[in-house]
Amino acid sequence: MTPAPSPTRLPLTLYALTVGAFGIGTTEFVIMGLLQQVADDLHVGIATAGLLISGYALGVFVGAPLLTLATGRMPRKAVLVALMGVFTLGNLACALAPDYTLLMIARVVTSLAHGTFFGVGSVVATSMVAPERKASAISIMFTGLTVATLLGVPTGARLGLDFGWRATFWAVTAIGLVATGVIALLVPHTRNDDATPTSRAILSAIARPQVVLGLVMTVLGFAGVFAVFTYIQPLLTRISGFTQGAVSPILLVFGGGMILGNLLGGRLADHRLMPAVFGTLAALAGVLFAMTFALRVPIAAIAFVGVFGAAAFATVAPLQMRVLRKAEGAGQSLASSLNIAAFNLGNAVGAWMGGVVIDHGPGLGAVTWTAALLPLAGLVVAAWSHALDAREGGAALHATPLSTTPGRAN
């Protein structure tokens, strides 16, 4: 039975979910601080090692909507525990993988838990609190992802440098065991009485033009982010001249920028959504282009890693809200899941594109300015979407000629 929501105290369930989010966030991003070690140990190139990010992201892209639908009628606690079990076993397989192929397979298996965990976890989190605290409940859970980027990834990178990359995956496996235990202990048993989405709701969420354009913006924006972030270790060591040991503390700067950008993006999106979409995508493109020059000066490189983190995560709230606002009714939850998948498809596309630039294009030094082209393409899509807004608004005015009240910008 679900405990009555407390208006003053956040339940321990939220912090159990936070532990799971921390583990998932760490395993997704930590590989970026280990690329050099993985590539050397498994005798593959940097670009090939970078595909481990793409494989994970594609697993999330496929797994998020499919597993969300497949587990829609199961008790949510059982789903969360099972997902953390998959996550834990996947990381154990990563730690034991004898070659690149098996490491890739293990990464993909691990990724299947990602999207559905955040989707189901959000529902559980909001069910534990009073209505006026639902947004706070979700933010508490996602704090785990934020802390993973700020602390888990640099710590994992340092652990990999000192004890080998496999030690990092052993540590994440331990986090998975802890998360599975606290979720099993603290998340209450509840029945899931939600109706499984109908095919009409699914098609409505996917096929609505404005939702599709929102998903495309998300893919392009985060493809630009991960074309650079995937290769942040070789960029800092080979171009900026830092030692491998310096990468871990520099990633802390990225994490700090990410937190500030995430908060700023949320505020901007609450104030005026579409201007926030335009502004954050434009800022991201400008920062990526400027990094081409900043990386060649060590002090400027450190500063721009922080600015890059802020610009990257300032886009998250506006892009997520754009998709949610353009989805309607039963399609909203699926559209939200699809947008999580779109973020990860962008991760995969960006990692692949960065590898192509390194191996077959101008080289590592060109990764940043070529990455800037992706959010610029996102701006073009945003302009298209905004034009559709104007057309739809004009049609609404013609349909209701007596209305003189302007609608809020979308």
TrEMBL record:
Its main location: membrane. Pfam families: MFS_1 (PF07690). GO terms for molecular function: transmembrane transporter activity. CDD domains: MFS_NepI_like (cd17324). InterPro entries: MFS (IPR011701), MFS_dom (IPR020846), MFS_Efflux_Transporters (IPR050189), MFS_trans_sf (IPR036259). Coiled coil: none annotated. It is a multi-pass membrane protein. Keywords: Cell membrane, Membrane, Transmembrane, Transmembrane helix. Residues 13-390 form the Major facilitator superfamily (MFS) profile domain. One of its GO terms (cellular component) is plasma membrane. The chain crosses the membrane at residues 12-36, 42-67, 79-98, 104-125, 137-157, 169-190, 211-232, 244-264, 276-295, 301-319, 340-358, 364-384. It is found in: Cell membrane. PANTHER family: INNER MEMBRANE TRANSPORT PROTEIN YDHP, PURINE EFFLUX PUMP PBUE. This is Major facilitator superfamily MFS_1. It comes from Cystobacter fuscus (strain ATCC 25194 / DSM 2262 / NBRC 100088 / M29).
